[in-house]
Here is the input.
Amino acid sequence: MKRFYIIMMVVGTVLPWAFFLQFFSQNGVDIPLFISELFGNNAAGGFSMDLIISSLVFWVWSYRDARQRGIKHWWVVVPMNLLGGLSLALPFYLYQREES
Here is the structure.
């Protein structure tokens, strides 16, 4: 499973960032526009809200799980989630869990 998690960390970073980089190359680093585009229509808003809620649940669960399992550096998943996405942070945490 560790190899699968590593592959998914790469895939989960590269694919979303391919879209983000297109946005930033067309619009510059316009964070307010980026956020408004996340909720640009009902479909995008639904996906964005689902991801926000899933991320919050993941943070709470992984914090508790890390304390129970003695996983060090749990907090790394939060910036990974914010900068790389849940598709990076979740396989990273599961990889750490396999290591403990």
About this structure: The radius of gyration is 15 Å. The longest helix spans residues 42-69. The CA atoms of residues 63 and 74 lie 7 Å apart.
